[in-house]
Amino acid sequence: MSGPLQLQFVTSAPDVESLPDTRAEVAVVGRSNVGKSSLLNALAARKALAKVSGKPGKTQLLNCFELAEGGTVVDLPGYGYASSASKDTRRDWQRRMHRYLTTREGLRLTLLLIDGEVGPTKLDVDMLAWLREQEVVFRIVATKHDKVRSSKRERRKRDLAEGCGVERGDVLWASAEKGVGVDKLRELVRTTLA
């Protein structure tokens, strides 16, 4: 089946224990302001499924969406957000996210979103190392494809993959704005949750 993912918002949970049971789940994780909500909206072809905020770091809970064909997608709080949250609050968010990623029954795949315009930051590299160390199955998605000038795209694709320690073909490039890579990503989610 092709076309938009039929996603419905289920709940915002403070921790993994408060999420509904699922047989299969895909998690979406990334730095604050990487475009997680915009990409989720693009996957569902709906403008307001996931709230897009002008202020990074607004996603503070585990936001769970159900796919009509079965399975769930969870949008995790962005990491690296600093301005209005205390150190303790940020540490708490990180603990909750790590607990979710290491204990969630049914978690099949984690989509790690990295800003394609900026490339992997130290926080992204740290997250990658942690995912590998914990043996969490993940796939890198480079967002904001449309923001990278076409003359620099090939080099950026090579540099981003290198910075993440993966092959170029292991990075899925996407643009919520222009729809680049969105169909491939929908297919990946469907196949994972099937």
Task: Explain what this protein looks like in three dimensions.
With 194 residues, the chain is an alpha/beta fold. It has one domain (7-193): 3-Layer(aba) Sandwich (Rossmann fold). The chain has five helices and seven strands; from the N terminus they run ββαββαβαβαβα. The chain has helices at 36-44, 87-103, 122-133, 153-164, 182-193; strands spanning 7-13, 25-30, 62-67, 72-75, 107-115, 138-143, 171-173. Strands 1-3-4-2-5-6-7 form a seven-stranded mixed beta sheet, with helices on both faces. The longest helix is centred in the middle third of the chain and has 17 residues, at 87-103. It is globular, with a radius of gyration of 16 Å. Residues 53-57 have low confidence and may be disordered.
Content of β-strand? 15-25%
Helix content: 25-40%
How far apart are the first and last residues' alpha carbons, in Å? 11 Å
What is the overall pLDDT average? Answer: 89
Short description:
With 194 residues, the protein is of the alpha/beta class.
Which descriptors would you attach to this protein?
single chain; alpha/beta; Rossmann fold; globular; 194 residues; seven-stranded mixed sheet
Helices and strands in order:
Blueprint: E1 7-13, E2 25-30, H1 36-44, E3 62-67, E4 72-75, H2 87-103, E5 107-115, H3 122-133, E6 138-143, H4 153-164, E7 171-173, H5 182-193
Parallel strand pairs: 2-4, 2-5, 5-6, 6-7
Antiparallel strand pairs: 1-3, 3-4
